[in-house]
């Protein structure tokens, strides 16, 4: 059994808490009509700081001043708000009237014997205390600030929405000549329906006082305003005598012990020329609300053409996305739009084909951006190999002729086979290279709870790549470029479990004869016989096949669950199934009627037990296969999602599970190597560390040889997750619920075991600390 030891967890925490220095970076993120920019660079040079101090008529500036750091939220119309160090310093000294304790004076008195004491006799706040709340942007159009009684709904922020973007920007920091610290930083997180920002000025003067000025900014999609809250909290050190001094250095911890001195709340109203309440829809879903379709599947007139393209979410190619990525459910809903999910699964899923004819140029443009013929040149430079990455084939006299060459793919030769030999190019698993397909398929795997593979087929004019055949997967065809002529036939093997080529004379007349055009979608169940060709007059056709539900039948589930169920039931007090079989049953040529009757009775009792829920149904092998082979979570910046948070969780923290849809919990048997005893354990598996580049690729001979050279050998029995004793299951179920929960409330017998469980999930990157996420200090 795998034990989560303190040593392992400590190594993980040290790795997670390693500082990265002041590395320059710039990140942009689009949220509907808003662009969020977070720029971070090096500390200003001394000569630049001196020049700036002179320009600002300030005797000195903070030791660590990041003058070029900025966090900006700007609308496509030009207005917005940004946070930078220079403007923050311009507000120094503005609080001496509103805060009774003059910090600079107390500091001066506390350090009268300092070598720098003569420098602080001027009327100037050397603590750099600032009431800065951001800088409004725009010339003709600006956000308009008005007082309001409306407050930020912090409970709504605790709803576990996906965090699509997060950054933390330090503006300045000064150690007050080793007498404390003065610093200001700004954090932002963007969710599918809102963004939340915290600007925090933190001041600690050793032996004197602690002060926190917080500015919180919140904007909800579909609302034409932001809420900005400003608060000041402050207490003298003497007032904090009952607070452990160790908390003085942590703004999040000490904030709740400080006295609230001031609270102000403003509504930042968007200019009338800016977006209307309906225009700041959740960034990926606006276009879905515009897809008004008629009952026959053709797109009716909609407002989407009137919406400026820059207000829509765009993929890496710059083309507006037409899918809603908020949740797995919304991705599938937008994929089959205008068809509703209820109608689709009731009338079409596993029953009959569906053709959605859209005639939508914007959708066609988006589909083309997913993959096109012109992409092949760049992809060939990545070391593609025949068979592994693509096949070159053509249907000749009802048979598939494979025209692959040896080794790496040469683009010039590939185009020659395509242009001159009319060969179809079948590109395997393009989600390995295309981020938008990664995002689509990752969400669809969460939706179906099954692997989702893909292939791109590029076929020249008057050519056909494959003979009539059927597959063992549910198929969704997205027409990306050109047109494709499809003929579908009634299954000879409904809901087939294997791929098979069918001769023309066996398949009869087509049930569907369809021309797919760019932007159209075609679905058909496994077992549906099909063939497709590129019509005359069409330069070429490119389509994407999304396939799923391979080996996901009730029969597959029973084959996996039944042995485990019988094993568990044999250990109960009921001895019925432990009784011996009739003598010579294995020697009989045929099973006797009495034996069949007994077996039927036993199976009925098994069915009754399942119906009563007396034993956990353990599909361990299917779960392990899914967890090991599915895509990792999609991350726009290709971040390491498995890296734990910077701070380890403690008993006092509230935590929540990350990537809930990527976690599978399985009950499995485990044998103790010491005494051979078998016990039931909990295996928590996840896909955060899965390799996107190997998704649905299997293991080729070439990969095997590469692993041997690297000295790597996969152990098929090795668990892809964490193993816990069965007693830990209730606490794991608490975390699986996906709601914030205090570590102290986990159902474990001791405080140490509660913390150890939280640390185990944290070290795998599966746990978020609520205080870190919400950036709260009160």
Automatic annotation (TrEMBL):
Bias class Acidic residues marks the residues at: 700-717
Q: If you read the UniProt record, what top EC class would you report for this enzyme, in one word?
A: oxidoreductase
* Enzymatic reactions: L-histidyl-[ribosomal protein uL15] + 2-oxoglutarate + O2 = (3S)-3-hydroxy-L-histidyl-[ribosomal protein uL15] + succinate + CO2; L-histidyl-[protein] + 2-oxoglutarate + O2 = (3S)-3-hydroxy-L-histidyl-[protein] + succinate + CO2
Cross-referenced PROSITE patterns: JMJC
Domain of life of the native organism: Eukaryota
Output the Gene Ontology cellular-component terms. Answer: nucleolus
Q: Which GO terms describe its molecular function?
A: iron ion binding; peptidyl-histidine dioxygenase activity
In this chain the JmjC domain maps to 429-561
Query: Example GO biological process term?
Result: ribosome biogenesis
| Family listed | Belongs to the ROX family. MINA53 subfamily.
The UniProt function text for this chain reads: Oxygenase that can act as both a histone lysine demethylase and a ribosomal histidine hydroxylase. Is involved in the demethylation of trimethylated 'Lys-9' on histone H3 (H3K9me3), leading to an increase in ribosomal RNA expression. Also catalyzes the hydroxylation of 60S ribosomal protein L27a on 'His-39'. May play an important role in cell growth and survival. May be involved in ribosome biogenesis, most likely during the assembly process of pre-ribosomal particles.
Name assigned to this protein: Bifunctional lysine-specific demethylase and histidyl-hydroxylase
Naturally occurring in which organism (per UniProt): Umbra pygmaea (Eastern mudminnow)
């Amino acid at each position: 059994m795998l034990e989560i030891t303190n040593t392992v967890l400590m190594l993980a925490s040290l790795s997670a808490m390693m500082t990265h220095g002041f590395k320059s970076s710039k990140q942009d993120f689009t949220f509907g009509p808003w662009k969020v920019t977070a720029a971070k660079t090096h500390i200003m040079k001394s000569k630049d700081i001196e020049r700036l101090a002179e320009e600002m008529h300030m005797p000195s500036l903070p030791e660590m001043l990041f003058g070029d750091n900025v966090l900006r939220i700007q609308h496509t119309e030009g207005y917005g708000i940004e946070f930078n160090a220079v403007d923050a310093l311009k507000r120094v000294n503005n609080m001496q009237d509103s805060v009774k304790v003059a910090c600079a004076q107390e500091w001066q008195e506390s350090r009268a014997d300092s070598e720098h004491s003569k420098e602080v006799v001027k009327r100037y706040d050397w603590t750099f205390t600032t009431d800065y709340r951001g800088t409004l942007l725009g010339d003709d159009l600006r956000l308009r600030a008005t007082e309001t009684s409306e407050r930020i709904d912090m409970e709504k922020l605790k709803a576990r929405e996906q965090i699509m973007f997060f950054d933390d920007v330090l503006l300045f920091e000064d150690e007050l000549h080793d007498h404390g610290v003065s610093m200001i930083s700004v954090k932002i997180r963007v969710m599918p329906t809102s963004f939340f920002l915290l600007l925090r000025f933190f001041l600690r003067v050793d032996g004197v006082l602690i002060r926190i000025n917080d500015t919180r900014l919140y904007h909800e999609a579909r609302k034409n305003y932001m809420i900005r809250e400003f608060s000041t909290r402050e207490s003298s050190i003497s007032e904090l005598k009952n607070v452990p001094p160790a908390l003085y250095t942590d703004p999040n911890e000490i904030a709740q012990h400080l006295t609230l001195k001031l609270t102000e709340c403003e509504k930042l109203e968007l200019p009338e020329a800016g977006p209307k309440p309906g225009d700041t829809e959740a960034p990926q879903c606006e276009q879905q609300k515009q897809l008004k379709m008629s009952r026959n599947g053709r797109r009716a007139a909609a407002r989407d053409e009137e919406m400026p393209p820059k207000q829509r979410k765009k993929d890496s190619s710059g083309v507006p996305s037409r899918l809603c990525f908020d949740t797995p459910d919304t991705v599938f809903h937008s994929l089959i739009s205008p068809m509703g999910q209820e109608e689709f699964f009731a009338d079409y899923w596993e029953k009959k084909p569906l053709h959605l004819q859209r005639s939508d140029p914007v959708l066609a443009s988006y589909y083309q951006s997913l993959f096109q013929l012109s992409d092949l040149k760049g992809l060939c430079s990545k070391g593609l190999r025949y068979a592994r990455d693509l096949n070159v084939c053509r249907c000749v006299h009802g048979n598939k002729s494979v025209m692959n060459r040896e080794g790496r793919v040469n683009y010039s030769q590939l185009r020659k086979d395509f242009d001159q030999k009319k060969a179809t190019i079948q590109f395997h698993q393009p989600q390995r290279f295309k981020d938008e397909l990664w995002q689509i398929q990752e969400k669809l795997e969460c939706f179906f709870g099954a692997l989702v593979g893909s292939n791109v087929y590029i076929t020249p004019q008057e050519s056909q790549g494959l003979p009539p055949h059927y597959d063992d997967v549910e198929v969704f065809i997205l027409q990306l470029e050109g047109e494709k002529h499809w003929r579908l036939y009634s299954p000879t093997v409904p809901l087939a479990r294997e791929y098979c080529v069918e001769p023309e004379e066996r398949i009869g007349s087509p049930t569907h004869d369809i021309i797919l055009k760019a932007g159209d979608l075609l679905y058909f169940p496994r077992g549906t016989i099909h063939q497709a060709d590129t019509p005359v007059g069409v330069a070429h056709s490119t389509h994407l096949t999304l396939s799923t539900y391979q080996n996901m039948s009730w029969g597959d589930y029973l084959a996996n669950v039944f042995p485990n169920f019988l094993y568990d039931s044999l250990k109960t007090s009921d001895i019925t199934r432990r009784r011996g079989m009739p003598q010579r049953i294995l020697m009989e040529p045929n099973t006797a009627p009495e034996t069949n009757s007994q077996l039927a009775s036993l199976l009925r009792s098994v069915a009754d037990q399942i119906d009563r829920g007396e034993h956990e149904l353990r599909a361990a092998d299917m779960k392990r296969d899914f967890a090991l082979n599915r895509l990792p979570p999609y991350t726009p910046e290709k971040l390491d999602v498995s890296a734990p948070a910077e701070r380890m969780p403690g008993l006092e923290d509230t935590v929540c599970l990350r990537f809930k849809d990527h976690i599978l919990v399985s009950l499995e048997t485990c044998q103790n190597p010491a005494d051979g005893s078998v016990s039931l354990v909990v295996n928590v598996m996840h896909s955060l560390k899965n390799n996107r580049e190997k998704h649905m690729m299997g293991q080729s001979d070439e990969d095997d040889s590469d692993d041997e050279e690297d000295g790597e050998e996969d152990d098929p029995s090795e668990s892809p997750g964490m193993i816990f004793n069965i007693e830990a299951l209730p606490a794991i179920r608490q975390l699986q619920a996906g709601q914030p929960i205090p570590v102290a409330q986990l159902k474990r017998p001791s405080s140490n075991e509660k913390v150890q469980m939280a640390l185990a999930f944290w070290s795998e990157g599966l746990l978020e600390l609520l205080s870190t996420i919400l950036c709260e200090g009160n």
